[in-house]
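so i finally got all the pieces together for this one. its two components total, 872 residues if u count the protein bits. some of the lines might not be protein, just check the labels. i wanna see the whole assembly predicted at once instead of chain by chain like last time, that was a mess tbh
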Amino acid sequence: MSAPLRIALAGLGTVGIGVIRLLQANRDLVTTRAGRPLEIVSVSARDRTLDRGVDLSPYAWEEDMTAMAARDDVDVVVELVGGSDGPALTLARNAIAANKHFVTANKAMIAHHGLALAHASEAHGTALKFEAAVAGGIPVVKGLREGAAANAIEQIYGILNGTANYILSTMEASGADFATTLKDAQALGYAEADPTFDIEGVDAAHKLSILAAISFGAKVDFDAVACEGISRVRAADIAQADVLGYVIRLIGWADVAEIESGAPALLQQVKPCLVPKGHPLAHVTGATNAVVAEGNFSGRLLFQGAGAGDGPTASAVVADLIDIARGEAGNPFSVPTSELIAMEPAESGERTGQTYLRFTVTDRPGVLAEITAAMRDANVSIESLIQQGRANDGGEVLVAMVTHDGPERCVDAAVALLSGSASLTAPPLVMKILEE
Amino acid sequence: MSAPLRIALAGLGTVGIGVIRLLQANRDLVTTRAGRPLEIVSVSARDRTLDRGVDLSPYAWEEDMTAMAARDDVDVVVELVGGSDGPALTLARNAIAANKHFVTANKAMIAHHGLALAHASEAHGTALKFEAAVAGGIPVVKGLREGAAANAIEQIYGILNGTANYILSTMEASGADFATTLKDAQALGYAEADPTFDIEGVDAAHKLSILAAISFGAKVDFDAVACEGISRVRAADIAQADVLGYVIRLIGWADVAEIESGAPALLQQVKPCLVPKGHPLAHVTGATNAVVAEGNFSGRLLFQGAGAGDGPTASAVVADLIDIARGEAGNPFSVPTSELIAMEPAESGERTGQTYLRFTVTDRPGVLAEITAAMRDANVSIESLIQQGRANDGGEVLVAMVTHDGPERCVDAAVALLSGSASLTAPPLVMKILEE
């Protein structure tokens, strides 16, 4: 048996405590699989006095977590503090500079600083691992970095936020509207008091930018993710989608296309989409996450599981530690950082496909003619159009339509033509329809 | 850039040619990800004259494939010949003895000889990899060996044979019977001329025994897999299951329970099962494979994708080669072979759950009374019982029932009580019902 892998653990929230519990509960099997013991030597958190339900006395307490990086008795620093900057980032930089391996569940930090950290860890010959930063317990970073490594990835997409998926699938089951469902989700602990990051797609965008970098060999570019949340999705949209054979999911999507210069351009978007009921993502309900990678040889690969929670996240953190203990950790983004390409952000306009549009309109004559004329003028061909029979309490009527296959820029043009129209009570909700 | 990883490729069927095509099509990205070129230096197959649609002239041809192991210019031997013994096994032994890494897609060989080969490769300090042997392009060996490595696996189960799943899901969609569907599947190339290995569960059992070894740290024990195929499943069973809220899938299942001595006992079975429509495996149709691992911290992880085919299988083979090129290949069964435990085969009798039983009976008075009396005498509690209205052409009536939760041994006892009864025209079909 080799020497233990000595761990400093920063952050003792639910995930940090989950890691401690896991290493206690599964000690023997983790040691056998890792080939050496995984031993926590030091811990740190804001409040030492808090009762966290586990005995922390075996571990040296560090008041200043960034000091953990300086400890001679530590091989790897695990950061479970959160926040894209601040103490987490300082700790990361210090740890790498002190030749420690670094493991984190911090998606915001990796989305913003992952490239710089990877570059630093490369220079120091240390491992940087962040399986837990994407889709909780699902080994999808590994699945892409290694499992699908032989493939050119054509698209990577999936359900990357459990809160948004919980809300959408609950609306689907109950018929309730967004506001009520969000409130219930908050009461049940499925949504935070400030749910913005989850429901507006920011959290999913963090994860997507990491997955896109690994999949396409691109430099992480979180700022280029086009992001739209689910707060505008109505019960009526879900009902309409159902009739048409779809469910609505918040989908993070990335692919690469060549632009005119021949250079690759990276499309990254997080948006509510219509998913055909025959597609595996249509059956993903509740707080579950699921990622689809379409490889040019593997075909469609699906990775599904719990996207959050102390147990699943701890499982991913310790999997990273086992990789490090085994000496099986390589380039965090699959290739050396020098090989990562700074890709132009792609416009989605040239993409073709079917689109769902939902208009809220005033209940008066000529509105349908105005909308359909805009579609015609923008060369959008309509496959089906459904107008709700009666105006709702606000005097609004909902008009939903599905286009034939066509370029997204035509749909954008049609929407632009209708912009400012007195007939529309709000901008239309436009959702891409995934292919089965 | 480091020196190339030099490959000898034995077997030039669809998968072997798939590997060549992949390494041509994705050459640059594979080189970048692997950190070095993956270079085929030598190939071998039975017939040199066959036109395989790819140019083999760059590669040295070996008439005797087992001689590949002796080549000084080879680092890794890839075996895509098949067969649990014979030339494939000789090649494996020779390659490992000659200090070559060894990669194979041969599930039968790994199920029968994987332990001995792992032991040999350990002694020689070489890698033994077989991702492609289980579930084609799905990186599930890696998912268990590494992704879920922090977990005690509670159960591992899934759809491990594409042909059987194609037949069952086609029967489900069409309402056709087994024989017709099999014939169509053969005509379409989804089933082989001799489909025995696929439809009787042997192929799935090979894969299950490999997954079980990795999941539970057990010595591979293919002979202990209880195996039952799908040929007795009727259209009426599928229709009945549908009414009750289930689909029928051929499920490979493994878990570990303690026996009286306190030692772990390994349950391995491949059997048609009822899967609740809300379970992710219920939506797996066609030739797709899907594996569920339930970890004590990760919760339920699902890996899904193409279980066969030249592209997906080549994807898995080359992923193994990339691992080797990166120096990230470890113990093939996750732990050193000396740590693998020879587990007793477990009886399923003590497992509790719901069971579906379908009887074919003669159409005469008293039959239901006989069946229900046997259930009562064996302490099987019936949740629902459905008797088909009319006898079919053969004068048979179908009686289907679902039990309440209870030990499987009680169901076995009830079936034993009815054994030899003149009322039954055939032994009942007994299927476990998976929990949602």
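The radius of gyration of chain B is 24 Å.
The mean pLDDT of chain B is 95.
anyway lmk what u think
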